[in-house]
Write a structure and sequence with these properties.
Elements: H1 2-15, H2 30-33, E1 34-44, E2 48-50, H3 52-64, E3 68-83, E4 86-99, E5 102-117, E6 120-130
Parallel strand pairs: 1-6
Antiparallel strand pairs: 1-2, 3-4, 4-5, 5-6
InterPro entries: NTF2-like_dom_sf (IPR032710)
């Protein structure tokens, strides 16, 4: 059951950014999926380390101000290792949408560290890079 639960948390994380069909992206759910002390790091194109709130704020604006519409991202491959109450997932993803009126696509790699909490599996840390 643990792998299924981790799959669900991962899909929810990716789904938080979906604003296709005029629906509002639900980036607020990241506050539920990632531990409040979680660390989120982008290594490329620019190295940036974020707190949960620092990560959410600019994405919430971008996905709600009309600049990035019809956006979604999804996992394309993954490898998950679970040992007791910790898990690590290494995967690739794709994303697409319309940014400032122009088609936008990309892909990259994410690694997600999970811990099992009394409330279920949560993300403790996430790192990613976008392919050039």
């Amino acid at each position: 059951m643990s792998k299924t639960e981790i799959d669900q948390v991962t899909a929810e994380f990716y789904g938080a950014f979906d604003n296709r069909g005029g629906k509002a992206a639900d980036v607020d759910r990241i506050r539920r999926l990632v531990l409040p002390q979680g660390v989120i790091v982008c290594t490329a194109p620019t190295f940036t380390a974020y707190s949960v709130e620092e990560f959410i704020a600019p994405r919430e604006r971008l996905l709600s101000d009309g600049r990035l519409v019809e956006f979604s991202e999804w996992e394309t491959s993954e490898e998950t290792r679970i040992e007791g109450d910790v898990a690590s997932r290494f995967g690739t993803y794709r994303k697409s949408g319309v940014f400032d009126g122009k088609p936008y696509e990309g892909e990259g790699t994410k690694t997600i560290q999970f811990v099992r909490t009394p409330e279920g599996w949560r993300i403790a840390a996430l790192s990613w890079f976008d392919n050039p």
